[in-house]
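Structure request: Transaldolase, Pyricularia oryzae.
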Amino acid sequence: MAAATQKSCLQKLEEMLDVDVDDMDADYIRSMPIKPHDQTSNQAFVDVALAQESNKDLVFQVATEMKGSDWLAVYTRIAVLMCKKNLDLISGRVLLQTSPSKAYDTAATLAHARLYDAEFTRAGVPRDRFCIKIPSTGPGLNAAKVLQGEGISTLGTALFSVVQAVACSQAGCLSISPYFNEIYAHDLSKRDQVWPKTTDPVTQHPMAPRLVHILETYRRLYKETGKMQPLVKNASFISVEEAMAAAEMGCQSATLSREILTKLAETPYDANTQPGEGRPKPPHAYNAPEPLPARLQPLLKHDPLTEGWDGSSPSTDVDYLADGGAALQAAIEADPATQKRVRDALEFFVDAEERSRKRIETVMAAVA
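Returned structure:
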């Protein structure tokens, strides 16, 4: 742990953006040296929590009281109740993700999000304390637009491109979560194949230019329209350097695994060893932004994830949600990097969801 007279990287990061925890374990969150803002999760985190001995009684209780219900209804109530336990440990919202197996089904995504909303209401959790994560597909973001109109906050997730970010703006999402690394960077057996390990992620990581493009696009849209743009909650980090880079690039928040949070807390902050430095949190995410720092300006001129990029930015005048999100889907399919990363993320979460289905159906059979 850093000496008391010297800030840790975690303390410094919290000065520059909102630190969120990407974990559902109450004991861990309680042990954190700072109080996180939001608690994020996904199907993989829920599945880990379902398997924990500490949640065994909860799973059995809900399965018993919901006899005759389908497994997803049982899963949803359990996930909500597990999140509710953490509300006093955070200052912001808990986040749960709609079924990834229905990422291309607007009606099914709407139904699952509304079920989450109903379960949060049943549990006494107000809408300003939770947010529903929606995969950033055409059908998914059409569901997000409806949900926002109903007063249910959404976050566009599995996001890897400027076009997806623009579509999230058109849907009115509260936030987005661009993944800094693709999902399989978190699989130790595949990490070396997909993780671009860097010492200066801002200038060396292939996702950094897209992230800066997204933030600049939102600043421009806010200036032109006066409409609040989604907050950028950067996700999917492997190193301390990447987490610190999120602040330098201007993200409003970063959701971090316990591994990264622990390393940040144990690492003394030394400005002299940082390749760049972020700025304190601004009073408003997009109003009256400071000029883009000189170190970030070159990132607007290239996109390492697009072979032969011509320097043009996606149009913000196209309605990416029309016709079920046809224009968004076409843009994703025309972008091999995004197409692969979205596919892999959904595959990863569907696998976790399937494990959870089997766990819950086993318990449901036992109490039938």
